[in-house]
Write a structure and sequence with these properties.
heterodimer; A: alpha/beta; Rossmann fold; 6-stranded mixed beta sheet; 5-stranded antiparallel beta sheet; about 35% helix; B: mainly alpha; MetI-like fold
Chain lengths: ~250, ~220
């Protein structure tokens, strides 16, 4: 059974159709990368999967269960309240600009959702959060505040915060686009270590070598449609003009 | 009248000024938050009604509002007024008036919050209420504190408007003594009291701002 299924998704912003009838599927432990030029709809696809945008057509299923869909008459059916929180507990999202809570310490950023939303024991949560920070190489930053962290450290805290809630699937929305090459490296290393743990991940990224190395499946999007998809080798070697032009541009 | 008696009488008035000040803050700060929710409501009718409410309260003199609240029951319902109603009317007029100003300050703070904070909170499982109480509001407080300080300092001086209802707060007392003694001295003494009152308030607000300096 697929963890996530998005079937025939379409999405427009006013007149502009940014996603045109796209379907995708993520299985347990699978790593899916979505690549493509800016404005191709990659991030929008991720925001639809995580309920931050509503879809105009299609359906979204988590663990086989239909959680959001559009009726034939155009009515959007979305979960609310406790049901929405249950759906959101299936996944975590790592944002391009981190979105840590600036008024909470690093430790509290991680433990507050565990304690307040998942009703877990505070001590146990703190213990687990410290272990996670250790794995991220941030054991000494537990009591720091987000404003004292570098971008790479902030992003690793954001990853720890998402992981702490035990999501079945982790989404990354251009997690390194706000970082310089050195900081990018430390974040990519952490994401690679997660792949080794067989956590399902969907990654929107401009890091081509990284995507090629880590993914089980790659989707190349352009102008709201999937142009090429398959294994990393199939996609990166594909004789597809737009795809090659996109990769070529990156090699300059 | 000796200097000491004058000071004692003014000090008596000052305690009443302070009670207007404290009670107004106690009621107008939460009320202002409620009004700001109405101002940002998705419901167009509520939003417009609250907009009109704020516009009237900010667009007419507070002194006139004091008179309207105090005499309203008499002119509208022919009720007997006076006694303890005087003080109640003052607190109602001040609280409602200040809630309009605070509402706009809250709104500016809430609308300045980056959407990413709401999105992160939603995906981390916070309910709408806890998102506001735990994530948004504490950050809003920090952002709006300088504007709130301004209003609070204005309120200290505005308490003197209660003289229009002949309530015995400090300014009313100063005016009475000045008239009786044909002296300007009571006003100077009152000015010093207001200044000290405000210095204490400003110091307190600064302390609160400092206590939130630990993050940006």
């Amino acid at each position: 059974m697929a963890l996530l299924e998005m079937n025939h998704i379409s999405k427009s912003f006013s007149d502009l159709e940014v996603i045109k009838d796209i379907s995708l599927k993520v299985d347990e432990g699978e790593v899916l990368s979505i690549i493509g030029p800016s404005g191709s709809g990659k991030s929008t696809m991720l925001r639809c999967a995580t309920m931050l945008e509503t879809i105009d057509k299609g359906e979204i299923r988590y663990l086989g269960e239909r959680v959001a869909w559009v009726e034939p008459d155009g009515t959007k059916v979305y979960p609310k309240g406790a049901q929405l929180r249950k759906v959101c507990s299936y996944f975590g999202l790592v944002f391009q600009n981190f979105n840590l809570f600036p008024h909470y310490s690093v430790l509290k950023n991680i433990t507050d959702p565990m304690v307040h939303n998942q009703k877990r024991d505070r001590r146990e949560a703190e213990k687990e959060a410290r272990e996670l920070l250790g794995r991220m190489g941030l054991a000494d930053k537990a009591d720091a505040y987000p404003c004292q962290l570098s971008g790479g450290q902030s992003q690793r805290v954001a990853i720890a915060r998402a992981l702490a809630l035990n999501p079945k699937i982790l989404f990354f929305d251009e997690p390194t686009s706000a970082l310089d090459p050195e900081l990018t490296g430390e974040v990519l290393k952490v994401i690679r270590s997660l792949a080794d743990l067989h956590i399902a991940m969907v990654i929107v990224t401009h890091e081509m070598n990284f995507a090629r190395g880590i993914s089980d499946h790659v989707i190349f999007m352009d102008k709201g449609v999937v142009e090429v998809e398959g294994t990393p080798d199939e996609v990166f070697e594909a004789e597809h003009l737009r795809m090659q032009a996109f990769l070529g541009k990156l090699q300059h | 009248m000796s200097f000491q008696v004058m000071i004692e009488q003014l000090a008596g008035g000052l305690t009443k000024s302070i009670s207007i000040f404290l009670l107004t803050l106690l009621f107008s700060l939460p009320l202002g938050l409620l009004v700001s929710f109405g101002r940002m409501s998705k419901n167009r009718i509520i939003r417009s009604a609250v907009w009109i409410f704020i516009s009237i309260l900010r667009g007419t003199p507070l002194m006139l509002q004091l008179l309207a609240v105090y005499f309203g029951p008499f002119y509208l319902f022919n009720l007997k007024i006076g006694g303890s109603w005087r003080f109640t009317a003052i607190i109602i007029a001040f609280s409602v008036n200040y809630s309009a100003y605070f509402a706009e300050i809250y709104r500016s703070g809430i609308e300045s919050m980056p959407p990413g904070q709401y999105e992160a909170a939603k995906l981390l499982g916070y309910s709408r209420a806890s998102t506001f109480m735990r994530i948004i509001f504490p950050q809003v407080v920090k952002r709006i504190l300088p504007s709130v300080t301004n209003e609070v300092i204005t309120l200290v001086k505005d308490t003197s408007l209660a003289f229009s209802l002949a309530y015995a707060e400090m300014f009313t007392i100063a005016k009475q003594i000045a008239a009786k003694e044909t002296s300007f001295m009571p006003f100077i003494a009152a000015a010093v009291f207001y200044y000290i009152f405000n210095a204490v308030v400003a110091f307190g607000m600064e302390r609160i701002e400092k206590s939130l300096d630990y993050y940006t």
